[in-house]
Amino acid sequence: MDALYGGPAGPAGGGSLARNEARRPAAVCRTSSTIVAPPASARAIAPTRNQKGQLGRRMRHRTRTRPSGEGPSPVGPRSARMPPMAKPTQCGRCGRENDPSFAFCLDCGLALRPPTPAPPAPSAAAVCASCGEPLRAGFRFCGRCGAPAGATPARPAIGPSGTGVHAALPPRTPAPPPEPPPLPHPRSGGVRLAAVRTDGLPGATHALEPGEAVCGRTEGAIRIADDPTVSPRHARFTLRHGALSVEDLGSASGTFVRIRDPRRLAPGAEVRVGRQLLRLEPAARPRHPEPDAVRAWGSADAGHRFRLVQLLEGGGTGEVFPLREGANQIGRESGEVTFPADRYVSARHARVEVTAEAITLADLGSSNGTFVRISGPVELSPGDQLLVGAQLFRIEA
């Protein structure tokens, strides 16, 4: 038990330890990468320096002489792995050697590369060999005579005198340009009724012949079928001796003419401003009560004589605007009669002047104009505008 667990070893134990040490190879230190020699008893079997040199040469020889098909050897001469360097370009004027990538010499500036040849000049336009007509690019036949583009020119005729003078080709007369198609014009020199669309562009145009022309939704020569505010027989246009007039035929919505100059209004007159329809009415004047009579409570009477009443779709009434003596302005932003929500009303659209003698309506240069409903025949001139229902027309000549 003592010999097995570390007691004094006998002769047999000592021999076994020597053999084990002799078989142990040389160890390598992981920290310093140096070879640690085996014990003295095992040095007899370690390889000598010559044996190590022969082993190294044998390994290098195996690496260099690889079998064919396994690719180039990783170990070889440096010249076989590096591409050859381009030779420097020598200047023919000063003799300086320049880098092969340079286009000019660094010393004298001489061009080191041959000049690039200029592109060939464009050839003249091809001409037909038969008639001399210029041929368009890509055309295979002449557009005038139909001859092939690559046809051989015909042999010129010889003059009667035998002098070799070529017979001259007949002069080519250029074809006149095609006339533009005629524009759709109702009748040149006549009076026309042009519809104006909501975006301001011209719409349908109707020619007015001498005589009468009825405009309506279902009757007459001028039909406005898509406007429900147009009556079946709405208005009548009369053209006699070059004078044009319009007359309302008792329509529900009326016929309105745009005013150019101040127009006198009578009680009951209707005015269109933007999208608003206004009616002029006299203001009710209270009777003078007796001194002891009971009076209804309310605001003090300012003495207004007339008022403008807003008419709504369907026949109802909206706001009421009393008109004072003097100027009463109609607009979108300021004035006595305002419509802030109507973008078709200008900021300063029109003015109603109330005096003791008359009531006058004047346009203030508005964009969409001021229209007055007509009650009888009204003469029209070129440039006048009128409203038939919701349709705007313009007179043209």
Descriptive notes:
The radius of gyration is 57 Å and the shape is elongated. A hairpin with a 2-residue loop joins strand 13 (270-273) and strand 14. Helix content is 8%, strand content 27%. The longest helix has 16 residues, at 49-64. With 397 residues, the chain is mainly beta.
Q: What can be said about this structure in brief?
A:
By secondary structure, the chain is mostly beta strands. The chain contains 3 helices and 24 strands. It has helices at 11-23, 49-64, 78-81, and strands at residues 27-28, 35-36, 89-90, 97-98, 191-196, 202-208, 211-216, 222-223, 235-240, 243-248, 255-258, 263-265, 270-273, 276-282, 306-311, 317-323, 326-331, 337-338, 350-354, 359-363, 370-373, 378-380, 385-388, 391-396.
